[in-house]
Amino acid sequence: xxxxxxxIATQIEEAVKDIPGWSPIDQLLSLFTLALSSSHxxxxxxxxxSWCGRSAVALGMAARLTGDTKVHCVDLFPEKTDWYQNAxxxxxxxxxxxxxxxxxxxxxxxxxxxxxxxxxxxxxxxxGTIDAFNHFVHINGLSDCITAYKKDLMxxxxxxxxxxxxxxxxxxxxxxxxxxxxxxxIVEQFLLPGGWICFDxxxxxxxxxxxxxxxxxxxxxxxxLCQQLTRxxxxxxxx
Length: 239
Prior knowledge:
Elements: H1 8-16, H2 25-37, E1 44-48, H3 54-65, E2 71-75, E3 83-85, E4 91-97, E5 100-104, H4 112-123, H5 129-139, E6 146-150, H6 153-159, E7 166-171, H7 177-188, E8 191-200, H8 207-218, E9 223-230, E10 233-238
Parallel strand pairs: 1-2, 1-7, 2-6, 7-8
Antiparallel strand pairs: 3-4, 4-5, 8-10, 9-10
Helix pairs in contact: 1-2, 2-3, 7-8
């Protein structure tokens, strides 16, 4: 069975089966579908928050089908030494880029059990998440369309080509209200009319994400077809 007739859900499941991460197949399939359905727009795809590449691979598979689309993956890509244990036993990390410290998992930290099970074991194979990311992108034949950027979104935007246009942006970065609002404002500078912004962890346990979507998307009057697609996934189409 060739790739055209083989169910795409099966292809995605096979492509990401060894990639560390938490995005289930239904969410990856939703991402793929949105990326594919926006192929009529002449724009690229942006992912903010990539970890080891599960969602990036799904987006890249759609981009590969649609020609010269590029997937820009922006992440702090922490190394093992960037993580530290807090006084209560939970974990957070901070990454220094260009002299600026970027913290993550500060308000909602990672409990010791999931850290040891899901995160520490990844570092037994890879020195950093970007190493794992690039490996999985390569073995899935997606290196030509996916590029990793070890930086924050503001730095990426300041260095992006003036003609960068996005048909889809997937936001899964800092989950605080202010950070998500800023991410939306930056993405909107590049988002094409009719393009999509997608949010992970929406309307679940992250109040900052929920509030930002309410304030910047649902109440803005600039978006339509707003819909929770899966258990943790929210998408909106720009007018």
